[in-house]
Design a protein that fits this description.
The protein has 356 residues and is α/β, with parallel strands linked by helices. It is 35% helix and 14% strand. It has 12 helices and 11 strands. Bound molecules: 4'-deoxy-4'-aminopyridoxal-5'-phosphate (PMP). 4'-deoxy-4'-aminopyridoxal-5'-phosphate binds next to helix 3.
Length: 356
């Protein structure tokens, strides 16, 4: 059975909206577009025209970048939109559920709530540095579990899930659930992507984003990598013309070999800063624990987070607190910034700044 058959019946049978035909070089009088660009076009090209219904060149570039076949990619407005599409396509309101492993990225639950799908929790193992509890996840699955979200590296705990765990989940839930591995921070982990497993597990989906390692959060671009039947289902519900012309142009430029090299250099700088920040924070008397991080942030437990926050607030420095997560009491997620920004944080915490 193909995993696409797990999608809601009305989505499997959906007749997608028929957009106006786009043929290069033809006179376009079929889409009610303006014939002239706006006064403020600012060199952005033909903004009076709708973008491509699906950006073919971008799909080809993303496929090459992530090492999958072209039919296995769908570009979305950030990977957030991919989470939304998956839940809407696969979960019947009031009937189906998704399994998540908190503490983890909050949007899985939000989109499940919006769709009216239940969220079932199989918490990470706090006593084992927030490792994924594979047996716990499988235990929580029911006949109506359609999606299992695995975030690797996990936000906000920073750990990577071993590939053997993903294989085990995919095998155990074959024909029943999709395993959605959210690799938003994969580039920082230096661990191989589970994309390599897509060929052997038809119920595996990988989410990538250009918002982190490729520095493009403002462009809103992510990618779903999945077997073709699953991509076709998601493609059927993604809005036509979803990616704006300037966004597609900008992402294509970022994926050029020179710009990818520049992104790799930035990543290396972030990884060096991550080590420097970790070493410096460990000397801070306020710090109780820092979890091993395979991402661009550190999860730090403080003796008294509210006093730390007050001090940082005075200096206009923002960090992320998790007031509603019992497992993260007194913990904050600190993004690795530029050296100067990190110095400000360390100075505000009264920590000696070591330049490297
Ligand atoms: N997944 C994870 C784990 C994230 O942390 C984030 C953003 N913080 C996203 C997905 C969404 O990112 P975007 O929509 O920018 O691709």
């Amino acid at each position: 059975m193909t995993a696409a058959l797990l999608a809601r019946a009305e989505i499997r049978n959906l007749r997608p909206y028929e957009t106006a035909t786009q043929v290069l070089g033809n006179v376009r009088l079929n889409a009610n577009e303006a014939p002239w660009p706006p006064g403020n076009d600012g060199g952005n090209g033909e903004l009076n025209r709708y973008p491509e219904i699906r950006p073919i060149r971008l799909h080809l570039q993303l496929a090459a970048h992530y090492g999958v076949a072209a039919g296995m990619v769908l570009a979305t407005r950030g990977s957030s939109e991919a989470i939304d599409l998956l839940i809407r396509a696969f979960c019947r309101a009031g009937a189906d559920n998704v399994v998540i492993s908190p503490p983890t990225f909050g949007m899985y639950r939000v989109y499940a709530d919006i769709q009216g799908a239940q969220t079932v929790e199989a918490p990470l193992l706090a006593e084992r540095d927030f490792a994924l509890d594979v047996a716990g996840v499988l235990d929580k699955c029911t006949a109506t579990t359609k999606l299992i979200f695995v975030c690797s590296p996990n936000n906000p705990t920073g750990g990577v899930v071993p590939q053997s765990f993903i294989r085990e989940l995919a095998e155990a839930r074959k024909n029943r659930s999709l395993i959605v591995v959210d690799e938003a921070y994969a580039e920082f982990s230096e661990a191989p992507s589970v994309t390599a497993l897509l060929g052997s597990h038809e119920n595996l989906v990988v989410l990538r984003t250009l918002s982190k390692a490729l520095s493009l959060a403002g462009a809103r671009c992510g990618a779903v990598l999945a077997p073709e039947p699953v991509i076709r289902i998601l493609d059927g519900i993604l809005a036509p013309y979803a990616l704006a012309t300037p966004v597609v142009d900008c992402v294509l430029r970022t994926l050029s070999p020179e710009n990818l090299q520049a992104s790799r250099d930035i990543m290396q700088r972030i990884l060096r800063e991550r080590t420097r920040m970790r070493d410096a924070l460990l000397l801070c008397p306020e710090v109780v624990k820092i979890w091993p991080s395979r991402s661009n942030f550190l999860l730090v437990k403080f003796r008294n987070l509210s006093s730390v926050s007050a001090r940082l607030c005075d200096k206009h420095i923002l960090i992320r607190e998790f007031a509603h997560e019992a497992a993260l009491r007194n913990c904050a997620r600190i993004t690795v910034g530029k050296p100067g920004e990190n110095d400000l944080l360390l100075a505000a915490l009264g920590t000696v700044v070591e330049q490297y």
